[in-house]
Amino acid sequence: MDQAPLSVNDIVEISIPEQVIVKGALLVYLLPLCLLLTGSMLGQNGLFGEMVDSEAAAILGAILGLSMGFLFVRLYTLWNRGKQALCPHLVRRVSPH
After folding, report:
1. Alpha-carbon dihedral of residues 24, 75, 84, 97, nearest 10 degrees?
2. Tell me: the pLDDT tens digits for 4-28?
3. How confident is the model at residue 43 (pLDDT cuts 50, 70, 90)?
4. Which of 14, 13, 7 is nearest to 97 (CA)?
5. Is the distance from CB of 43 to CB of 57 less than 8 angstroms?
6. pTM for the whole thing?
7. 96 domain-assigned
8. What total of structural domains would you count in the chain?
């Protein structure tokens, strides 16, 4: 990048590594969905024993699985918050304001 300082309203080009985008999309969309389905199957197949009928157990299992998925995503983002490899970086200034 050129050495001129940036100012407010400058148009810039940024870059995010492709692997960061793919990994983030899989984590945010696929993990909660997989845990929702797993929780639902476990609930229906006896996770809660005979306390509730199988349909209610499947619903409870799905809610628990989805909640665990969201919790894991949240903890992962907190854990990786300051990592430079996951942050966008400046490529160049396209034009000054």
Report:
1. 70
2. 688 888 888 989 989 989 999 999 9
3. confident
4. 7
5. yes
6. 0.72
7. no
8. 1
59 token code pair? 């619903």
CA dist., res. 18 & res. 69, Å (int)? 23
Assigned token pair, 87: 């942050």
The answer to the question of residue 70 being in a domain is yes
| 3-state per-residue secondary structure call for the chain | CCCCCCCCCCEEEEECCHHHHHHHHHHHHHHHHHHHHHHHHHHHHHHCCCCCCHHHHHHHHHHHHHHHHHHHHHHHHHHCCCCHHHCCEEEEEEECC
Range of the domain at 16: 12-91
With beta carbons less than 8 A apart as the criterion, state whether 9 and 82 touch: no
Assigned token pair, 28: 């945010």
What b/e sequence results for 36-49 when a residue is b if at least 16 CB atoms lie within 10 Å of its CB, and e otherwise? bebbbebbbeebbe
